Amino acid sequence: DAMVIQNPRYQVTQFGKPVTLSCSQTLNHNVMYWYQQKSSQAPKLLFHYYDKDFNNEADTPDNFQSRRPNTSFCFLDIRSPGLGDAAMYLCATSPRDRDTDTQYFGPGTRLTVL
Amino acid sequence: QQPVQSPQAVILREGEDAVINCSSSKALYSVHWYRQKHGEAPVFLMILLKGGEQKGHEKISASFNEKKQQSSLYLTASQLSYSGTYFCGTEKGGSNYKLTFGKGTLLTVNP
């Protein structure tokens, strides 16, 4: 009964080689988020979708892009990964139709850049 | 603006209590508490809305002081399973659906 699924769990790529991470949800939540988390740091929001409305954080590098083709799926594209992009990438969802809603995280994809 | 958590780390023996604080320089709409174990995703613990409420979840409870813009997480009679990094996520008013996380508090519970 997995709710937020991320694939792959581990991704190794080469410097400069594009990579796509995927997230899917069975919760039918309106909002989907992508976070980057480096070792011993807090999750850092990259962008989020409210339905199809895309919201980019001001300090998210242009190297990072996202697609949400439907309610269930969201993708994170890293066009030219650098060594500094090695991190855990977390996808989260939220229904956000009540004040008491929170965000529910997937297990994450750990990205290694060689 | 990132909330400030304190302490950065705490080590307990099983059965001891701990308090983790989260404060913000901005007015808050809600505070969300998560626990993350090494290599795993953050797991939601509880949410507190403005209004100064206090909530409980087994032996873990939390309070939110809206005037002071701070929240505290209370862990009583700690168990080994409580070990992990605790993050508070704060949300400003305006329904922007975004959380800003503090740097985390590493809690280690030893036998």
Protein architecture, described:
The complex is a heterodimer of chains A (114) and B (111). By secondary structure, chain A is mainly beta. Chain A is built from no helices and eleven strands. In chain A, strands 2, 4, 5, 6, 9, 10 and 11 form a seven-stranded mixed beta sheet that branches. A four-stranded antiparallel beta sheet of chain A has the order 1-3-8-7, with no helix packed on it. Chain A is globular and about 40 Å long. The relative contact order of chain A is 0.34. With 111 residues, chain B is mainly beta. In chain B, strands 2, 4, 5, 9, 10 and 11 form a six-stranded mixed beta sheet that branches. In chain B, strands 1-3-8-7-6 form a five-stranded antiparallel beta sheet, with no helix packed on it. In chain B, a hairpin with an 8-residue loop joins strand 9 and strand 10. The mean pLDDT of chain B is 89. At the A-B interface, strand 5 and strand 10 of A face strand 4, strand 5 and strand 10 of B.
Briefly say what this structure is.
The complex is a heterodimer of chains A (114) and B (111). Chain A is an all-beta fold.
Element layout with pairings:
The complex is a heterodimer of chains A (114) and B (111).
Chain A (H helix, E strand, L loop, with lengths): L3 E4 L2 E4 L5 E7 L5 E7 L6 E7 L2 E4 L7 E4 L5 E6 L8 E8 L9 E2 L3 E5 L1
Parallel strand pairs in A: 2-11
Antiparallel strand pairs in A: 1-3, 3-8, 4-5, 4-9, 5-6, 7-8, 9-10, 9-11
Chain B lengths: L3 E3 L2 E5 L4 E6 L6 E7 L6 E7 L4 E4 L2 E6 L4 E6 L8 E8 L8 E2 L3 E6 L1
Parallel strand pairs in B: 2-11
Antiparallel strand pairs in B: 1-3, 3-8, 4-5, 4-9, 6-7, 7-8, 9-10, 9-11
**Helix-strand topology string of chain A:** EEEEEEEEEEE
Main beta-sheet annotation of chain A = 7 strands, mixed
Oligomer kind: heterodimer
What is the CA-CA span between the terminal residues of chain B? 37 Å
Overall geometric form of chain B: globular
Structural class of chain B: mainly beta
